[in-house]
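Lecture notes, unit on protein representations.

Consider one protein chain, 161 amino acids long.
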Amino acid sequence: MALLKVKTTELEQLDTKVAAPAKAEAPKKEKDALGRTYGTGRRKNAIARVWIKAGKGKFSVNNRELDNYFPVETLRMKILLPFALTEMTGKFDVLCTVKGGGHTGQAGAIQLGIARALDKFDSVYHVTLRKNGMLTRDSRVVERKKYGKVKARKSTQFSKR
């Protein structure tokens, strides 16, 4: 009988330890001394490092203006989409460096970097960005060429004779 009492009290103690969940901490805002937040974006072979801070909408890509670096309107719209979704267009200054890949990959990398930096700046934007797929990395990359093929999947021309 004594063993049974000891085991039940041990079980009760375990239940109280398990029943009391730890408090969930709110995500901390990660800003540096200059008030900037950082986000890394990747797409295909492009890697973008993005810093945002509250400002008047100044945008710099590799020390060039956005319109100068990306002359195609659709790429500029893609890059600015996280700001449009969170209704913060023109309220942040963006400084980013991007390398590797082509124009489309670089635009996608900058877009992901901006979305991640906005998420760190204020967690209020997280739900909107997540719902619209802005925080998910597009993992598609070019498939490698296989031996015996012309490209990754294209075969040589078939000859009957």
